[in-house]
Amino acid sequence: MFSTSLTWNDLQFLLQGAWVTILLTLASIAIGTLMGVVCGLLRALLPRATLPLAWLLDVFRSVPLLIQFVLFNAFKSIAGLNISAFSVACVVLGIYAAAFCTEIVRSGVLSVPLNLRRASRSLGLSYTQDLRYIVLPMATRVAFPGWLNLVLSVMKDTALVMWIGIVELLRASQTIVTRIQEPLLVLCIAGLIYYVMSLVVARLGARLESRWQEND
Amino acid sequence: MFDYSFHWRAAFKALPDMLAGAWVTFETAALSMVFGVLIALLLTLMRQGKNPALRGFAATWISIARNTPSLFQIYILYFGLGAFGLHVSSWIALLAGITFNNAGYLAENFRGGLKAVPDTQLRAARSLGMSAPQAYRLIVIPQLLRVVFYPLTNQMVWAVLMTSMGVIVGLNDDLTGVTQDYNVKTFRTFEFFALAAALYYLIAKAIVAVARLLAWRLFRY
């Protein structure tokens, strides 16, 4: 009953898939955070002027990620861009993450009381100094849990890139299932890897968060 | 740069079929929300209770639902159940997967919502002579609903977006499935999927608008 044809090589294949998942997550979170911080600051500081930006980013949140992947992949072929499926996935996931990150950063910046900023300005700090030394540290603490949630959800969403032909963890498990026909075992291993990855990220984040709170 | 002629007419000809698919998508999402809310309430109760087995069950459900991709959850229901000789259709697998996911996320929301309802409310209701179920039904749940209403709407939008994964396990009558069918026949990928994206956007916006109206009507006092 407990015999299995899962070999050591299969496990390595799964781990390679997991590595692709991690790389994708890191790349798209990097893109998303950079864009998100810029857009979020703009949204918080110039709410009226950047309203069209909010509408645009809202589109990325209201359309299924799967469809965004397919659309961008098709667009790539139409426009004749010669980039790999991996970069397509990074770009789409990055913009998707940016759409969420913008809201997180925006609410973080808005959570800093206006009186505090007025106080810092009347103490003689310039506008940029106020942003740099007062708003940024306080907004980061408020936004961090949301950002961590975003990292976790992006990591889970990377599973969708299998549709445009990238072999990540879930696709790798699918390939193995096709060969050895033991779906439950292989999928459980894949699920375990996902579970462990998100648990590690969540734990690290919680530790960082509590360390920050010490100084409050 | 653009050596490609767009053929939007083909896509618009498929619009009636895609609208029918959109309806299936909406139905699936709504069903999964109904079951999801019921199960999430049960899970919340289990978590509050004293029985360690039930608490463990609820905690396991919630942590698996929140820490693994929803596509994985659908996969394991579609392919994994086959190992036990249970062959479910792709629609059932999709519905069950989304419901599982919804229940996990909503249970967490409900827990937050319950925390927001002060303990004294329940005690006051009990001392006014209400039985425990009455107090929950008439005092706690209505207040809870106010707190979790916005997360509920959000989850409904998520559920609609999640139904698009059905196509990966072979569903062909929801919006993405219909689109993919046309795509395979005509290879006009961009046009069809752009139309599908527009439809998804409209569905999501419609849900948010209806929820706003409802909230305005329900929470007037």
TrEMBL record, chain A:
Source organism, top-level taxon: Bacteria
Transmembrane segments: 20-46, 78-101, 142-164, 184-206
GO molecular function, one term: L-cystine transmembrane transporter activity
GO cellular component: ATP-binding cassette (ABC) transporter complex
CDD domains documented for this protein: TM_PBP2
Keywords recorded for this protein, A-Z: Amino-acid transport, Cell membrane, Membrane, Transmembrane, Transmembrane helix, Transport
SUPFAM superfamilies: MetI-like (SSF161098)
Main location per the UniProt record: membrane
Key word Magnesium present: no
InterPro entries in alphabetical order: AA_ABC_transptr_permease_3TM, ArtM/GltK/GlnP/TcyL/YhdX-like, MetI-like, MetI-like_sf
Membrane topology: Multi-pass membrane protein
Pfam families attached to this UniProt entry: BPD_transp_1
Subcellular location: Cell inner membrane; Cell membrane
Domain ABC transmembrane type-1: 18-205
Family label: Belongs to the binding-protein-dependent transport system permease family. HisMQ subfamily.
PANTHER family: L-CYSTINE TRANSPORT SYSTEM PERMEASE PROTEIN TCYL, MEMBRANE COMPONENT OF AMINO ACID ABC TRANSPORTER
Name the record gives this protein: Amino acid ABC transporter permease
Organism this protein belongs to: Pseudomonas mangiferae
Automatic annotation (TrEMBL), chain B:
Full protein name: Amino acid ABC transporter permease
Top-level taxon of origin: Bacteria
Topology term for the membrane: Multi-pass membrane protein
UniProt key word Zinc-finger: no
Xref: PROSITE patterns: ABC_TM1
Family: Belongs to the binding-protein-dependent transport system permease family. HisMQ subfamily.
GO terms assigned for molecular function: L-cystine transmembrane transporter activity
NCBIfam families for the chain: HEQRo_perm_3TM
Localization of this protein: Cell inner membrane; Cell membrane
Phylogenetic lineage: Bacteria, Pseudomonadati, Pseudomonadota, Gammaproteobacteria, Pseudomonadales
